[in-house]
Amino acid sequence: MNKSTIYYLFFATLFVCGCSNLKYLPEGDALYVGGSVKVEDTTMSKKQRKALESELEPLLRPKPNASFFGLRPKLYFYNLAGEPTKDKGFRYWLRNKVGQPPVLFSQVDLAYNESILQNYAENKGYYKVRTESDSTGKSKNRKVTAEYTVRPGYQYKIKSVTFPTDTTNTLERDIAKLGRRSRLRVGQPYDLDRIKTERERIDTRLKEQGYYYFSPDYLLIQVDSTVGTKEVDLIVKVKDETPAKAKQIYTIDQITIYPNYTLSASDTTNIIAKSTPEKYKDFTIIDTTRTFDPRIYDRTLYFHKGDVYNRTDHNLSLNRLVNLGTFKFVKNEFRPSDSIENGLNAFYYLTPLPKKSIRVEVLAKTNSANYTGTELNVNWSNRNTFKGAELLTLTGFGGMEVQVSGQNKGYNVFRFGGEASLVWPRFIGPFKMESGEGFVPKTRALIGFEHQERQRLYTLNTFKGSFGYLWKENARKEHQLNVTEITYVTSGNVTAEYQAQIDGDGTPENPGNPALQRVIDKQLIFGPNYSYTYTNTMQRRKKNTIYYKGSLDLSATITGLVMGGDKNEPKEILGVPFSQFARMEHEFRHYYKLGRDSQIASRIIAGVGVPYGNSDQMPFIKQFFIGGTNSIRAFRARSIGPGTFKDSVASNSFLPDQSGDLKLELNTEYRAKLFSIVHGAIFVDAGNIWLMNKDESRPGAEFTGKFYEQLAVGTGAGLRFDLSFLVLRLDLAFPLRKPYLPEGNRWVLDQIQFGDRAWRKENLVFNLAIGYPF
């Protein structure tokens, strides 16, 4: 098929889709394809006119049918489905869920849109605004656009802003103090939205000072436009009809807590009637069964008797109660106190989650190494183990992964194990630490065991334990510090086949791979580790958002110094040489929003591990790996590197995992919504791993100054099905650069042959996964 034929088919498709949409329109009507706004004003600069046009156009209603390269796929599917005979089935789903009915020109109210544009412009300070509208295109092709012309006239500026001057009135005096940080500035254009924001700012600040009953509606900002040419004076006042209680500062009096509150009014009445109030510090607790230790309220609630009310402590207290993870519902109420003047009684109604619960999960998974499998997880939880909202979790798991086809067929992986963790909603230790804002600091202790069997190769038993802290400074910054983390790995049932792969037979075809010995060596790792995470991706209005995670892992630093660790004669603990190393990893992500439903997501990962003292190499489980579903998707999982090394594996043997001491990975991905729940992506991945020291058994694996010439590169495209509760991801990728090929021949663009079956089998990699790769 030549290029001209492809072009003809492409344009024929556009024509057919366009015609098929238009022929279903009602007689005498036309398809509304959008509106435009033109601002005409000789006193405004071109930049100002364009900015105002970009603000006005989104106000036009209705919105036209969404288009994609001139096509309207949702409208096409709507017409394709026809009129369904019942409210279910494929045709109903295609027409009403995927499709979209035509937006007709008869639905457009030009006069209404004119009034909306005029009102918006006047609220921005433009007076004597004139608007006009017209439509074009109806007689030609039954597609109509609406065109609006706005002549805004001159824009008023703020000449002065006056806050209350009555120093004898407490409320007006406090409002006057807020003038220093006012968002209404002299010389700014008059803007009604900014005035509303200023009222809300003043109300927020007054809430912090104890004015519980105050409201933005009690503020009046008068506008005087007679003070000068194109200028206004703004005067901030408290309305005369403001109630007396809104002018008073309130303090906290009684604090009453109902830890077993239910939504049923009769149940709650019975609980209150049968309960004997318990006093603990400033709190009155109504709890017949004494479900919780009263100390949790002292750690969680910010208010105490006599405190001046403020909105920050109000919200932080609620946030902390929710973040305990113990209560299903948290409700708060303030009522005027009968015992003191200008006092508030605080009531907290807490509905607990079931104390004990069990959850069973059955998972199915697949990866780019062509392994498919299943896993069973059973979790038992106790949310209030010692009456201090402690969370005890016992987990048992088991699963298997098999390769249906490929070189690792028959080398199946079976695993089972268990884990026990206990989380306290506070810091436990000799020093006092606080977590910021409404986040509860946590202490966690964990022990676990996992048995893994790789059929025809070996088995591994892993024991682990840790004790550490988790806390947040705020919604963006999170810390995790494990004071100690211990991992002990031992192997068994090493097969002759695996040992032969290690030893080799001395021939060039099978020189052996001593690095595989590290997988089955006994490993003892202990020491602290720390990670810090920063993200502002929750701020959806920002055009640029980032995510960063950095981690530092130290093993046997002090022990190695005390015992004099030496890699030539390694020191042992309980007969096992302990690992001594420092490991650091940084991950940075950047999200650039192109539009409402499209963005460019990028990621950089850089990591390094340095063995020293008692070790001459990093333990296998702490090394870096690259390639796979969430990494470089054009290569099998853990198959790249290190460096330019490629293991020479016989066709009847297994493919080993490749590991390294350094890692560099770069990913970028364009994401866009196609229609309904279907999103698309085009991506490019690059990276590799390397060794710190030269290894004779793996030539080309050492890190050098020419590392950038050894990067693996892959590209591809994918679909994401966003089901709200999960994202199903399908990616198809192929390599562009293979670092293990001879220098000068690593780029494989000239070797790409999609029509060749052998090439497809070797290079096309399909990834099925849950969630986005980053």
Fill in the keyword field for this structure.
774 residues; 29 strands; 16-stranded antiparallel beta sheet; single chain; alpha+beta; 15 helices
Helix/strand-derived category reads alpha+beta
Estimated helix fraction:
10-25%
Cα shape? globular
| Poorly predicted spans | 1-18
Note the gap between the termini. 39 Å
Helix count, per DSSP?
15
The overall strand count is 29
Average pLDDT figure:
87
Radius of gyration: 34 Å
Provide the β-strand percentage band: 35-45%
List the strand order in the largest sheet: 12-13-14-15-16-17-18-19-20-23-24-25-26-27-28-29
Q: What does the largest sheet look like?
A: 16 strands, antiparallel
Q: What is the gist of this entry?
A:
The chain is of the alpha+beta class and 774 residues long. The chain has 15 helices and 29 strands. The strands form five sheets. It has a 16-stranded antiparallel β-sheet with strand order 12-13-14-15-16-17-18-19-20-23-24-25-26-27-28-29.
